[in-house]
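Researcher: Quick one. two chains, 531 residues in total.
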Amino acid sequence: MNNTSRRKFITTGLAVAASASGIAVATKIAQHRGLIPPDGGGFYGPGEMLTYAAQRLLTGHSMAREFSRAEISENPFANEVDPLSDEFKRLQAASFVDWRVTVDGMAARPASFSLAELRSFPSSTHTTMIGCEEGWTYIAEWTGVPLSSILDRVGALPQVRYVVYRSIQSDWWESIDMADALHPQTLLALRMNGNELPVPFGGPVRMRVPRQLGYKNVKYVNRLTLTDDVKPFGKGKGGSSADGGYAWYAGI
Amino acid sequence: MNASQPIVGRGARQLFSSAKLGSAATAAHRKRHSALVRVTHWITTLAFLALLVSGGEIILSHPRFYWGETGNVNMRPWLNLHLPSSRDTVPTGYGYVLPDENGWSRYLHFQAAWLAVGTGLFYVLFGFFAGHFRRNLFPTASDLSLKKLAGSLVRHLRFERPVAEEAWSYNTLQRLTYLVVIFVLFPLMIWTGLAMSFGFTSEFPLAVRLLGGQQTARSLHFLVTILLVLFLLIHVLMVFLAGFRNRMRAMISGNVTSGNATSEKVTTGGDPTDGLPMD
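Model:
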């Protein structure tokens, strides 16, 4: 080995060591700042981590695009859902008067809200696009209670990092981080295009998260759980979609 | 000097030294392609194939394309691929539904996109600062004369093998094609891809507004894919026409010929099928 190649060998070694420690430090910082998604491990972990961290650093308070009334889709597509459960049908037969959205977990004042109580919150209306991971889209006007108002009312504890939300349908649940949970466009939607939210579109209550894809917008929501960790839920990836092999973060 | 030196044991050292190959006179071992070009070429190949396979798979869940902001099965597409779908909500006319593979496809698509973008940024910085673009890709003014371009085009259309003096450089059509791929098609893919991201467009709404809408972005993403696949097919065809073994060796080890090239410039014949640069 001559001098030149020894120098190159040493330079290469130093570069590799520097990159490795750089990655280790970056991972630590990302962990500390909450930039690692629940599905940030495994073969696709690096890509997921980069996407989530990059979008969170870029889009802290950004607002999903809003559209004019003229742009509301004449032909929205509801997508299909599993056959509605007996419990849902029983509540539907009574016009949902007994529907309740229970909020538990890390809250100072856990509570349970009827639809009438939810309607008594100051409402918020946004004309936004919903897009499926399959590629199709439509635009609608959604009205409902900002999720942040609910979190305020129940006294969410400071250590809450995720809101887990569940459908009355079995094994249908998702979670979002606080950037989306406290976001002004994130709603417990009760109305669509000026009418009661139709059942095929998620009525009586649908989570509306316009900065993420359709599958984070769970239909027939009846329970919210505030938590600092999603590992104890399901298979630990933060949602039934993520447990089924889809990305937890769906901002792309 | 000695391009025919054994390949073994040269890789790691060459990674650094060949970036300086601009001053050919001082380069101890002149390579057809610098190590950076070779490494980024193959990483990009890997990422591109992963993006192509996963992208094609994602399309199967909705093989219809629309213009504007919105599009769904209740609306009329401008293009319906008439493929079987992995969703039973898509009216395809086929009596069966493919399995849903979008979970891993989307994971792979974005992971490969990061790999491609990272490699691309690295390559472009290297290309500007180390003179790769200036030396190897930007055509000179005289190259761009209509007569020369027409001549080059005719030689390509006749499938003529390139002349020997082109063995160490790209011809003008090749340069222009690579420049379009690097500076037009790849950036368009990134732009149209990001324009479909709800997170990204919440911060940069113009990214999608300028294109004319979310569904237009998706359609353009698909159309540019077709152009890139056409490029890939012609690129590989040219590699075969110019001599598969030599072109592959040049892009893997950097060496052009196994025995003929003993000086930096291949000036004389040898086997005319050796060292032809139509890749």
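The radius of gyration of chain B is 22 Å.
Researcher: Thanks, that's what I needed.
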